[in-house]
Design a protein that fits this description.
By secondary structure, the chain is mainly beta. It has 1 helix and 6 strands. The protein has a single domain, classed as Beta Barrel (Thrombin, subunit H). The longest helix has 7 residues.
């Protein structure tokens, strides 16, 4: 277990006045603990080996963030956690009050 300070990017979808689906990305500063579950190098016929990993980030749930992440009226999804300059793709989210636990398993690639 180690401490971390980073940001959580959350995307929410909405329909604008013209009826076109839009995405809005918001970032929230978070601090908490992270646990490295496992890391594996997959060897194959590639020149470079593939690296897979799984980590869990646990942080205290602020009331604002809980409200945003639990809204059913909008399509709200955590995208990535930015930690040490690296954007890590969020795979799953669990509420264990008073904490939110996010599992990441890859590097986020901007689209």
């Amino acid at each position: 277990m180690a401490k971390f300070y980073g940001s959580l990017a959350v995307v929410s979808g909405f329909t604008d006045d013209t009826g076109i689906w839009q995405r809005q990305v918001q970032k929230y500063d978070i601090a908490g603990d992270f646990y490295q579950d496992n890391t594996a190098r997959l060897s194959g016929e590639l020149i470079n080996q593939d690296l897979t990993f799984s980590m869990r980030f646990s942080f205290l749930a602020s009331p604002d963030l809980v409200t945003i992440l639990s809204e059913d009226s909008q399509a709200v999804t955590p995208l990535y956690i930015e930690h040490l300059g690296l954007k890590l793709k969020v795979n799953s989210m669990t509420f264990q009050w008073p904490r939110i636990i996010l599992t990441v398993n890859g590097v986020w690639k901007d689209d």
